[in-house]
Write a structure and sequence with these properties.
alpha+beta; Hypothetical upf0131 protein ytfp; 5-stranded mixed barrel; two-stranded antiparallel sheet; 7 strands; globular; transferase; GGCT-like_sf; AIG2-like_dom
Length: 169
């Protein structure tokens, strides 16, 4: 296992995923991690945002909420390389902008993954600066009448999407 400390090929920030990329199958299809990959993922939330389904698509977009107490649950992944990040940028496309935002972790993270201060492990409740792909396309593209449901995505769309989307085949 390799060290997760910052190196020229390791991205300095973890990435918060709140949609289809919460699925390991989707994430690994996009980033194609090699056998040397040293990744860790933990449940996390971001505050002040809401996620809605993209019209006629199985994935969501996340936008700022007028209610700053709202949260979106997701997965925070540590250890991606710069090439992984490039692949993620390509996958997300022009309607999503990668921003650095605070994300609260819900499981401990070993010190080796704390690339901002690798001397201490991250604890439950710690807030870390993270890459987040925020939806910046026209809000009319999102179905704001209902929240996006990850479990429904996994149950109803994941297998079909993985087998038919040009992103994965």
């Amino acid at each position: 296992m390799t060290s997760a400390s910052a190196s020229p090929s390791t991205d300095p920030y973890p990435c918060f995923f709140y949609g289809s990329l919460m699925s390991t199958r989707v994430l690994n299809s996009v980033t194609r991690p090699g056998p040397e990959a040293n990744l860790i993922s933990v449940p996390a939330t971001i505050q002040g945002y809401v996620r809605y389904p993209y019209h006629n698509a199985p994935y969501p977009g996340m936008i700022a909420s007028e209610d700053t107490t709202q949260t979106v649950e997701g997965l925070l992944v540590f250890g991606h390389t710069l090439m992984d990040r490039f692949r993620l940028d390509q996958f997300e496309g022009s309607e999503y902008t990668r921003e650095i935002l605070p994300v609260k972790i819900h499981s401990p993270v070993p010190a080796a993954f704390n690339v901002m201060d690798g001397k201490k492990p991250l604890q439950v409740g710690d807030v870390v600066q993270s890459y987040v792909y925020v939806f910046t396309g026209p809000h009319a593209h999102l179905d704001q009448s209902r929240p996006w449901d990850y479990e429904a995505f996994r149950r109803d769309h994941l297998d079909i999407w993985m087998n038919t989307s040009s992103d994965f085949v």
